[in-house]
Amino acid sequence: MTLYPTLITQALATVRYPGNGKNIVENSMVADDIRIDGDTVSFTLIFDKPTDPFMKSVAKAAEAAIHTHISPQVAVTVHTAARQPAPAAPAPILPGVKNIVGISSGKGGVGKSTVAANLATALAREGYRVGLLDADIFGPSVPKMFGIEDEQLYIHEVDGRQMIIPIERYGVKVLSIGFLVDKDKAVMWRGSMASNALKQLIAEADWGELDYFLIDMPPGTSDIHLTLVQTLGMTGIVVVTTPQEVALADARKGISMFRDEKVNVPILGLVENMAYFTPAPHPDERYYIFGREGGIRLAEHLGVRLLAQIPLVGSIADSGDNGSPIALSDTVTGTAFAHLAHEVIDAVAERNSTLPPTTKVELKH
Ligand SMILES: Nc1ncnc2c1ncn2[C@@H]1O[C@H](COP(=O)(O)OP(=O)(O)OP(=O)(O)O)[C@@H](O)[C@H]1O
């Protein structure tokens, strides 16, 4: 009689596991260690738990199956083992944060930080728990927009760890790379120093429980973007553009970076900033000085939502300059940001119900 492994598995496939009625081969309970030596065979049966009540009876049935289907002469040794528990998933870096939304733009100066600051404020006004991280290494402007440029950062202990306390203003928890970087030396901070500083502001800050964690990203594409997608599983990206052709072309490039199959962060939608000019005394008038419908067309072309069209108005710049975002007001422009907040809430909800959570990107260099 010649024994060979398939013969053994065929015999074992006749043994039913009473726990679910399937046979033990189907259940992947026969380990990959079948040993045959002349008329002697040994193998291991694996059970989910070390306390499996069927362990002994299944082992006996396995031995009997070999005697019945192959030969009573075979000397069978059945080992039993419990499955190794899967290694615990690493703790998420921001365990209390539900949604992480990046605010991005293809080029500088299109109002990305203005949109980020006002969106954060508008969400907080609606009662959501909001954090805003200014990761724009090239021009961290969020502290100015919140009037917190001269604030000191403090540290406190959470579960034995020293954590930076975000500064809370208008219901938004804010941190900025600008707090760590001397503005005039920002350029020197490109590269790994900036990446490490950002990781610190994410992982070593006490963000606590947040519904929306917004990140004002640097314009264009940079290694900071890579740091962010590698550090965090981002829920999605809001892209800010202005209507000029050149800005639209850059927005398109920015979107393709996030859509790259290696990065693969969903685009929640487009915000067209400075979409038209409205003179303060005539809030109902709209002048499309940079061209009309560029944002609508780009959104349609790329198959993303146009989340909002924000007018070019002096009060947006003024309120940014004096540290109180226009979204705090009930003006026409303030309301435009409230609408944007609703659109973002919808887009995030839709994304979460249709796509799996974004995983951190493992980039191979
Ligand atoms: N809709 C708007 N109406 C009027 N002024 C605006 C509007 N949006 C932004 N601004 C002004 O334009 C300037 C640039 O805006 P902001 O700093 O938000 O742009 P950005 O895209 O974040 O720039 P960067 O990427 O270079 O930091 C600011 O002075 C801001 O107040």
TrEMBL record:
Which Pfam families does its entry note? FeS_assembly_P, ParA
Q: Where is the MIP18 family-like domain?
A: 8-77
The cross-references to InterPro entries, in alphabetical order and at most eight, read: FSCA_dom_sf (IPR034904), MIP18-like (IPR002744), Mrp/NBP35_ATP-bd (IPR019591), NUBPL-like (IPR044304), P-loop_NTPase (IPR027417), YlxH/NBP35 (IPR033756)
Q: Does the keyword Transmembrane apply?
A: no
Q: What is one GO biological process annotated to this record? A: iron-sulfur cluster assembly
Cite the binding residues for ATP. Answer: 106-113
Q: Which HAMAP family match?
A: Mrp_NBP35 (MF_02040)
- Per the similarity annotation, which family is this? Belongs to the Mrp/NBP35 ATP-binding proteins family.
Q: What is the recorded name of this protein?
A: Iron-sulfur cluster carrier protein
Tell me the organism.
Duncaniella freteri
